[in-house]
Amino acid sequence: MSRSVHGGRHELGQNFLHHPPTIDRIVRLVRATDGPILEIGAGDGALTGRLATLGRDVRAVDLDEHRVRRLRRRLPSVTVVHDDALRIPLDRPVVVGNLPFHLTTPILRRLLATGSWAEAVLLTQWEVARKRAGVGGRTLLTAQTAPWFGFTLHGRVPADGFRPKPSVDGGLLTISRRPEPLVDPAERAGYETFVRQVFTGRGRGIEQILTAAVPKPWRALLKAAGIPPSALPRDLTPEQWAALWNG
């Protein structure tokens, strides 16, 4: 096989999915959505071919020009584009992707900051999927974006379900744009700054942290939102974060 001008599989971060149960689950999740589909990182097309059977407009993107050429021949009903996932317009209602593990965070940040998509079905490293879905506590990135997006974990994918086999398992994650945001989108920059201040602030619990970060009487608002004063930022739900900001 010819080497891409962008490098081999290692440089491209390619771990091709060949785990039938996961492919079936992704297709079921996508089937429950509506509208044209954008697939990021099509690779050898194991998922692309199944998406094509849904009878919807599919645009598949890959950085490897050789794989793009082969997919165009094999799947004429799919629009296969030679492009970079960090540059392509995220302008389709549904985004699907087995994300290159080394680019997971920048792609996720871009998805959560730009585009008009409504649903994303993504395969990432297991720990990334867990953290985004708030398992074991929410992260700064999840808390900053949760007023506009909902995150759901759909299961773990064994490392040997990929070729070449990565050093970690994968995780199947869906992200849904909220039809009614919990915080006014015009206030997003200020809200994200507020959440960062709280996550990086000092104190033994949320009341102390909030008071140090933004001095004001917080106790009544915490009580109204059902937040114990001893809670930590990672423990708060999206609704509780929104209540603190909107209050």
UniProtKB/TrEMBL annotation:
The keyword RNA-binding applies. Residues 22-179 form the Ribosomal RNA adenine methylase transferase N-terminal domain. It holds the Pfam family RrnaAD. InterPro entries: KsgA/Erm, rRNA_Ade_methylase_Trfase_N, SAM-dependent_MTases_sf. GO terms for molecular function: RNA binding; rRNA (adenine-N6,N6-)-dimethyltransferase activity. S-adenosyl-L-methionine binds at N15, L17, G41, D62, D84, N98. The keyword RNA-binding applies. One of its GO terms (cellular component) is cytosol. Keywords: Methyltransferase, RNA-binding, S-adenosyl-L-methionine, Transferase. Belongs to the class I-like SAM-binding methyltransferase superfamily. rRNA adenine N(6)-methyltransferase family. This is Mycinamicin-resistance protein MyrB. It comes from Amycolatopsis rifamycinica. The lineage of its organism: Bacteria, Bacillati, Actinomycetota, Actinomycetes, Pseudonocardiales.
